[in-house]
Structures are given as structure tokens and as C-alpha cells.
Amino acid sequence: MGVALPESRFDTPMRGVLRNIVYLTLAVMLASVLLAVHVANRVARPLAALNAWADRLARGDWQAQAPGYSPIRELRVLSDAMDFMAGHLKQHAQQLEHVVAQRTAALERALASVEQTLTDQRHFIAMLSHEVRSPLAVIHSAAQLLALRSKDAPAQRAIAERVLRGSARLNYFFDNCLTQDRMDSGNFVLEPSPIDVGAMVAWVLDNAAQLSATHPLETDVEPELPTLHGDQVLLRIMLMNLLSNAFKYSPVGAPVGLRVFRRHGRCRFEVEDRGIGVAPEEAAAVFEKYRRGRAAEGKPGAGLGLALVRRIASLHGGTVTLEARRGGGSRFGVDIPFLPPAVDRAPTRVIE
């Protein structure tokens, strides 16, 4: 037995149920989104504050304040740990800054002491040179007069010539000391000027004759050399040191050679001696300040001349070489460009 009911009586309630389910689903989804936003906000905001605090601490900003209270226990624990670590880092940084300040002050005091020592040394050398030069000039003049008056007395003339050579060597020694001292000073500036190479070499030969009367000089200067642009005073000192070194290590009566010529667009100065030569392992050391080879034992000198030679050549953009001479002895070569490297100009001359 069946009962027939109209379809509308079933459709209407079903639509209501479906509508309620959709509304409930939307409400649940909206509530979930709001809850997620709320939770994320409560978590993200303290994390962002914690990250900003850590960034300021990493940059050394120890005045940065820790984030405020967080309702999340884990974040509170992390913030407390970072605050403890920041305190230790701040203390360590302050201790380190104190140590660095102490070391810096000690270094400044040491530097000031060194500078004062160097200044005192320069003043002492200048004073000593000034005090010694006047007596040396008197001794030199008296020795020259004695040599002239002793032409017929060989023994007296030999003594006078020894005095002349000794005073000349002492004078050039002080020249080297003053030159080295001024070149090491902070206000030294190279001032090149046009130089007649032939005239400069003639001056050097005339003055070098005072350093030794037992070593004949063999010279070979290429004629019509181009004008050399350099510091003439320094170049004279360089050549005088090379010749003095050759005299010192050559046997009595052995000639010393000086050649000047153009090579590869540069002015080449060569000084040859007939001495015992320089051991290959000592070739580089002899150009260092206050360093002397084994052959220098018993010879006068302070180990400054060849160091000055290399320094002066370097200031002119040149180079120095040392090689064994065929037949014994050494050959020192200096190559100086005819045009100097670019240098700063100073209003006054440092080397006089």
C-alpha cells in the first residue's frame, strides 16, 4: 500500500540543510583564517622584534633594548638567552676596547720615542759634522801647505799626503752620513736638473784623486753624451762612493777603471777594481745598509757607501749591478735614464 506525496515537500528542507552546511563551512573557514592570522601575529611580531634586536647587537649597538614580554614561553626563553649572551659580548667588547686603547697608547708612545731618537740622531750627526768640518778644513789646508813645502823632503811629503787622504775620507764619511740621514727624513724630495755628464765626471775624478795616491785612474768617457737630468749632488756622491770602494779593495798600485757610455737609452757608469772580488752569496748583502762582506775585514768603512749607491740609483729610476771582472776584481754598473721618473717638486732643496 503506498502513499504519494508531492516532491516539493522534500526539496525545500534539503535545500535548507545544504544552505546551512555551506554557511557553517564558510563560518568555520573564516574563523580558521582569523585564528591563523591572530596566532601568526602573536608569533611573528615577537620574532620580528627579536630579529631587529639581534641585528642591532650584531652591529655593536649595545644600547639596544631587549624586546618586551612575549606570551610565548619559547620566545621568552630565547630572548632571555640572547640577553645573557649580549651582556657577555658587551663586557668582552668593552674589555677588548680597553686593551686596544692601551696597546694603541703604548704604540704611540713607542713611535714618539723612536721619532725623538731619530730626531736626536739627526741633530747629533748634523752637530758633529758641523763641529768636525771646521777642524777638518784647517787640517786639510795645513796638509796641502805642508805638501807644497815638502817637495824636496819625500818623507814629510808622504806624511802630508796621508793626512790629506785621511781628512778627505773623513769628510766624505760625514757627507755620506748626512746624505743618508736626509734621504731617510720625511721631507726629502729629489730635484733633478740638466747635467753635463762630462763635466760631472771631471769633478768626480779631480776629487777622487784625493782619496788615493796609489791607485791610478783609467777613465773612458763617451764624447757628446746627452744631457742627463738628475740630482747632480747625489750622483757625485754615488760615483765617489763607487771609486772609494774600488780604491779600498784594490791592491796598492792596481789601476781602477771608470767608464761612462750610453747603453739602451741610458747613461751607464761602470767602475772596475782589481781586488779579490765579492763572493756570489754576498753580492746582494753588500748593498744593504751597514752590511759588509768577508773581504771587508780589516778595511775602514761603515758599510754605508754601496747602500747609498743603490738608493741614489733607485731615486733616479736606475739600477745597480755587480759582476765579477775577468782577471779578478769586481765591476759595479749603474744605469741611469737620461730623463728621470716623474717626481714631486719641493720649494727648497733638501740635499745641499
Overall description:
- Residues 343-352 have low confidence and may be disordered.
- Helix 1 runs parallel beside helix 2 (73-149) and helix 4 (197-208) crosses helix 5.
- The protein is of the alpha+beta class and 352 residues long.
- The chain contains 6 helices and 7 strands.
- Strand 6 (319-324) and strand 7 (330-337) form a beta hairpin.
- Among the domains are: 19-71; 189-337, Heat Shock Protein 90 (2-Layer Sandwich).
- The protein starts with 7 loop residues before the first helix and ends in a 15-residue tail after the last strand.
- The protein is elongated, with a radius of gyration of 44 Å.
- Strands 2-4-5-7-6 form a 5-stranded mixed β-sheet, with helices on one face.
Runs in which pLDDT lies below 50 for 5 or more consecutive residues are 343-352
Q: What's the tally of helices?
A: 6
Q: Based on DSSP secondary structure assignment, what is the total number of beta strands?
A: 7
H/E element sequence: HHHEHEEHEEHEE
Largest sheet: 5 strands, mixed
- In helices, the fraction of residues equals 55-70%
User: What structural category characterises the helix and strand content?
Assistant: alpha+beta
CATH architecture of the domain at 189-337: 2-Layer Sandwich
Question: What structural keywords apply?
Answer:
single chain, 352 residues, alpha+beta, Heat Shock Protein 90, five-stranded mixed β-sheet, 6 helices, disordered C terminus
Topology, please?
Layout: H1 8-58, H2 73-149, H3 154-184, E1 193-195, H4 197-208, E2 217-221, E3 228-230, H5 232-249, E4 256-263, E5 266-272, H6 305-315, E6 319-324, E7 330-337
Helix pairs in contact: 1-2, 2-3, 4-5, 5-6
